[in-house]
Amino acid sequence: MAIDLITVFGGSGFIGRALVQRLAETGACIRVAVRDPEQAMPLKPLGDVGQIVPIQANVRNDASVRAAVAGAGAVVNLVGILYPSGAQTFEAVHRQAAERIAKAAAAEGASRFVHMSALGVAKESPSVYARTKAAGEEAVRAAFPAAAIIRPSVVFGPGDGFFNLFASLARFTPVLPLVGGGATRFQPVYVGDVADAMAKILADPTLGGKTYELGGPHIYTFKELMQLVLRETGMRRLLVPVPFGVASFEAAFLEMLPKPPLTRDQVALLRSDNVVGGQHPGLADLGITPTAAEVILPFYMDMYRKGGRYTSAQPV
Q: For the structural domain made of 5-154+189-215+274-289, what CATH number should be given?
């Protein structure tokens, strides 16, 4: 059964933009629920007139969330943060908001729900990010048993916050730090593949009620990813191992910045690998062939050779 109206919370973000683009191709109307609707206005040209509608929504407010999901046949929660800021705490965003959105979707009669989580979430994790993400999954399952939970590794693509971060950093410093020696393993997954996976799950009710772990075709150490950044940008920088203890000490000061490049919680996350475990279905089970980072990175890392960066407004 086709879904006529889909509400996407956090649809103006990096993954949200890719998903809205995919959903617009299905002909569904998309309600993009965000804190600042102006940030979602660039999405409107991705669909027909009136097909993509940005609306203001506060995920910490029950009435606001209920209004955003009213009449929607499917709901997607992409809301997440990498570091807390004011009222936007990990607990408030990752658990409470996830539960609030799932409960509202169930109460309003939505038939499908997709919740974005992350690889490596665990209730016993030393990272608050990972613990609250795990609690959010549990709350979503309790409120909406048929929900599909998506756990991606590091997501890359035009406008990403990983490769772009280190490419930008390399432009202004002669060294790149290898936290913990750079041995942590990652399985970067292309944002277009993640969006395709969610679109397929939303289109098929039999795919709900499962947890999906999404990773790309290759596993890299953190050091190998930094070497990949330098190769694709044409920059030569020294890669310096930084012990976890030293990185955590430095992060204590860096996290005081308005937009910290590193926090102690992120250092805690880096102590564990971020790869698909194999216990849950993934891209292959959805009929999607994962895209290698080496295929996509040249299209936006090359901009750093020219002194610029790839804009997030570009299609994926």
A: 3.40.50.720
